[in-house]
Design goal:
Layout (H helix, E strand, L loop, with lengths): L14 H22 L7 H21 L3 H8 L11 E5 L20 E9 L2 E9 L1
Parallel strand pairs: 1-3
Antiparallel strand pairs: 2-3
Helix pairs in contact: 1-2
Length: 132
């Protein structure tokens, strides 16, 4: 089975159209069931409104992806900070560059760089933390 991405990069080509129709239809049903649930004799309308609410909750899984995990992963992650912001580097070096057990010099095999957006009044910059 071959999957085709829609204009938003996920789901089927017409997923936005179906999602919009689902939202509008569900909204109309919620208004109808909400008005009907004001009557004492229409207790079923409360259950129908709750079911419509559940549909609104899970409809994106149907229209945007075939798997709940893919939907959750699509929302995860952070965007990279803009490259035009100035960077302030802060290096975190170990206290000693020798092994605590054998006394030999440590060998640098790489570093971990994390960026955090900081704000000074009227100034934005990126604070870089570099660890060996």
């Amino acid at each position: 089975m071959q999957a085709y991405a829609g204009p938003n990069g996920r789901g089927l080509p017409y997923s936005d159209t179906w999602m919009t129709a689902s939202d509008v239809g569900s909204g109309a049903l919620l208004v109808l069931f909400g008005l009907l649930s004001l009557s004492r004799d229409a207790g079923w309308a409360r259950w129908a409104a709750a079911t419509t609410g559940l549909w609104l909750l899970f409809a994106p899984l149907l229209f945007w992806t075939g798997s709940a995990a893919a939907y959750a992963n699509d929302r995860a992650g952070r965007q990279a900070l803009p490259p035009e912001l100035p960077r302030v580097e802060q290096r975190h070096e170990p206290e000693s560059c020798q092994c605590g057990q054998c006394g030999k010099d440590l060998v640098k095999i790489g570093e971990d760089i994390s960026e955090q957006l900081d704000v000074e009044p009227a100034r934005f910059f990126v604070h870089r933390h570099i660890r060996p």
